[in-house]
Amino acid sequence: MKVITTVLASAVLVGGLGASAYAMTDQSKSSTKTQTTIEETQAKDIALQKTDGGDITNIQLAVDDGVKQYEVDITKGNKEYDVDIDSRSGKIIEFDEDQKDDDDEKEENLQNASPAISLDQAIKIALKSAKGTVNETDLDQENNRLVYEIEIDTADKREATVSVDAKNGDVISVEIDD
């Protein structure tokens, strides 16, 4: 009787472990399906389509209320747009449209200077100075010149900020946080 009890207990234990392993394997497959994300270029296209064109002044990948999303800032004429896009589905989560105010006029005058290099070119230049994944970009004025500020998450888990001159593509500075 003792042998039968031991055999039955072993069978139940092995069966439970097998079912548990199967459940974990099945769950990991379904979670990889939900991790599919859109690329930054797709997010740009979605935002520009929503605003019917314009100039992207900032794009970043952020987590807001537990949702990983692209936050895209666009200027067009006398309007500013903020477009938040779900990074998994590509659906627009939030869309805001504002009139520019006087403070924005100074920035607009700077942007009317039109960068000589595109944001994509600036990103390629920055990635030569700091290898990693771009997580935020800004077009700013520093010392009376137009500058792309590009934040990069490096492979060694640090953050690099690369400043690229928007007129000539020169790297102005590289700052790496420890």
Indicate the topology.
Blueprint: H1 2-34, H2 40-51, E1 55-64, E2 67-76, E3 79-86, E4 92-99, H3 102-111, H4 119-129, E5 133-142, E6 145-153, E7 159-165, E8 171-177
Antiparallel strand pairs: 1-2, 1-5, 2-3, 3-4, 5-6, 6-7, 7-8
Structure explained in plain terms:
By secondary structure, the protein is an alpha+beta fold. It has 4 helices and 8 strands. It has helices at residues 2-34, 40-51, 102-111, 119-129; strands at 55-64, 67-76, 79-86, 92-99, 133-142, 145-153, 159-165, 171-177. Strands 4-3-2-1-5-6-7-8 form an 8-stranded antiparallel sheet, covered by helices on one side. The longest helix has 33 residues, at 2-34. Residues 25-34 have low confidence and may be disordered.
What tags apply to this protein structure?
alpha+beta; 39% strand; 178 residues; 8-stranded antiparallel sheet; 8 strands; single chain
Mean pLDDT: 81
Number of helices: 4
What is the multimeric organization of the chains shown? Answer: single chain
Please summarize the sheet with the most strands. 8 strands, antiparallel
Approximately how much beta-strand content do the residues carry?
A: 35-45%
Strand order of the largest sheet: 4-3-2-1-5-6-7-8
| Termini Cα gap | 66 Å
Which structural category fits the helices and strands? alpha+beta
Write the H/E string, N to C. Answer: HHEEEEHHEEEE
The best one-word shape is globular
Low-pLDDT runs of 5+ residues are 25-34
